[in-house]
Amino acid sequence: MAEALLSPILEQLTTIVAQQVQEEVNLVGGVKKQVDKLKNNLLAIQSVLEDADRKQVKDKALRDWVDKLKDVCYDMDDVLDEWSTAILRWKMEEAEENTPSRKKIRCSFLGSPFFCLNQVVQRRDIALKIKEVCEKVDDIAKERAMYGFELYRATDELQRITSTSLVDESSVIGRDDKREAVVSKLLGESIQEAGDVEVISLVGMGGIGKTTLAQLAFNDDEVTAHFEKKIWVCVSDPFDEVRIGKAILEQLEGRAPDLVELQSLLQRVSESIKGERFLLVLDDVWTENHRQWEQLKPSLTGCARGSRILVTTRKHSVATMMGTGHVINLEKLSDEVCRSIFNHVAFQQRSKDERERLTDTGDKIANKCKGLPLAAKVLGGLMQSKRTREEWERVFCSELWGLDEVDRDQVERGIFLPLLLSYYDLPSMVRRCFLYCAMFPKDYEMRKYELVKMWIAQGYLKETSGGDMEAVGEQYFQVLAARSFFQDFKTYDREDVRFKMHDIVHDFAQYMTKNECLTVDVNNLREATVETSIERVRHLSMMLSKETYFPVSIHKAKGLRSLFIDARDPWLGAALPDVFKQLTCIRSLNLSMSLIKEIPNEVGKLIHLRHLNLADCYKLESLPEIMCDLCKLQSLDVTTCRSLWELPKAIGKLIKLRHLRICGSIVAFMPKGIERITCLRTLDWFAVCGGGEDESKAANLRELKNLNHIGGSLRVYNLRGGLEGARDAAEAQLKNKKRLRCLQLYFDFDRENDILIEALQPPSDLEYLTISRYGGLDFPNWMMTLTRLQELTLDYYVNLKVLPPLGRLPNLESLELRGLKVRRLDVGFIGIKSVNEREIARVTAFPKLKKLWVLNLKEVEEWDGIERRSVGEEDANTTSISIMPQLRQLTIRNCPLLRALPDYVLASPLQEMVISICPILRKRYGKEEMGENWQKICHIPYISI
Prior knowledge:
Structural class: alpha/beta
CATH superfamily of the largest domain: Ribonuclease Inhibitor
């Protein structure tokens, strides 16, 4: 009956579809010609775009033309990406329609026509957009002849850099007297009354070296020993009392405060420094508003006599406003000192012949630094890759040196010119990567791995033959670092490199990306969003406080490609649906550390989205299934989402995903289908399902089999013994994951773990290994094949009696033994079978070990030493044994039965020894206990017993 009624409707639909398809063919056929024409126009424009890019700095009309060209190129990219996304979705839908399970439940008389009609409508819509963009490009191309461009062929080849190491910020030349003056003022007798704090100001122009000098004083050994508390805060503009208060409190207490009200923050700051002698550095202060400083200042009283505040600023008026007791003025450096800084960077690892051949030209270039150390570093970084005298002369004679006379009002004289020279010397793709950083707030601490993923999301990195865009991003990063575009490098947890941009470099990047990159905060919100240029913004950062709601005017930025929202208030969740509906071109979205509880279904409209950062959203409880339709998504970060208990079940549909970071969430299992994401590069977490109702939805270890691109770190939880678990582990083939550097295996204490651990053999190049809660009796056979292993942690081996010969691992630098049941650390652990057999070969055990932690070995009683043979004996069979020759740090905690330390440990070059909850060792080695062996350790610089 139903089929009889629907039959006429189906016939009518089929007729409509056929007509639409014919119209589409005609339309697309015409568009193909337009696309070909567009490509030709773009090629013609690109051939002179390098020249246009240089000329736009001093030609406003040309700058407007280049901006229009960029806008239309963005539009074209969006349309083509929409087209490729639609094709990818159609293919995936067609593949799902053809699976046996879907065939059984599919409505055969409705599925096909509607599916086809949907495709026709989408194709027609995209074809019309392409035609519209082609017409825009045609109009812009006609204007090209007006500007008389010269052919300037671009190159994307990176020139070889002579040194891969980053410039050492601590090597400050020509400031020894100023450094001594700062340290002297910090350590000198206080002129203030007890409970008050003295202010010292470093004053000088941008790029003169104020921050570097303050860093040197801050890290000085005498200064560190003198002050009980040290705090460093980047202030910049605007002077945000709440942010400054949070930064001070975080460093005092070691964690981010949960307070948002200024008075509550300042009250706790006051309590934390009461009676303490502290040093507070306020770097890069701009405000001259006395009222703002007076709000903050009372919280810094009540401290111990001798406390100091060190301020860096460009303005004498700021130093006066803050009640400075002593001003240290930083003047420009002499030409001679600038040449020394320039040479230090430019001539790294060059031969004597090269130095002699290039020094005279180098001196002339260095003389253009005008006394600014940042300029010397930038120019030195530029010249690192120049090999011939002709290349050096070309830089010296560049027409850009005359720009200060042409565009004096727009470009900061002195420092922008070296930056321009270095910038234009970069390949075009590297330039784009640098300019992208203008979207971040000033003094923002960027993370390298995050920035590279954002570059990938914007399409700035070309895929290599091996498909490794990340390696290209790493190379670009190193080039920018060598040019001093990045600075203040810090490394956390092996792969986490963080850095900043100098404020002058940031100003330069923002100058070059006017109307493209925008940073909005509470102070400039209204001014920034009412301007019509908001419609042209492509990359936006918003730093909003609790009192500031999401500005609806941002919805005008229809072409927005990057959005970073820093807002610690629940109202953001209510604003997101409209944001996603309006700003559909977003490719990179960062909502990290926000208080949202869910991602709205409107996220499905972000069809271009490549990068989604939700890290540290500790209230986030769920991710919508519609996210799995974002088929272009390349990176998803939900680390430390402490309320997130499940990932979308269809996550396997994200076949373009390259990076999935989960650690720190409470996700119970990995959904089935992860095996489909074969281009995955990062998978930092995998939990084996523990059974129950989730087992039917959970992936098992064998789904890792074809994910051979995953690298970096991988943690595997809930490992269980038995034949089935071992078979799954063997299928995972971890040994084929050649990019994997860190592996952490967490078992369930099962005695049957022996066969399982053998099946979990990692790649031979592994550098970091943790094995925890292992219940087996023996170590895996593959343990001693890891010849590149640098760090090893053995954690709670409940049934283990004997350690393997770890001393034979040639590259081991760090060893942690935690909660083991062993009663003896014997010579087998060192890797020596017997010390009394004269046939033993010459041996060095633990040749590179620097750090050794022995924790919670509650049953260990003996730590065997080695009988040392006389080195002077002229016996062919005499053995020379060296054990732990590089050991620097030893920590022994909660080993109550351990009687003594072996001689080879006491003879090592230890710099730090910490012994706690070890009563026998304390009695034996403690100074206060008059221990019999105190003299054996008293030479160690730092001892805590």
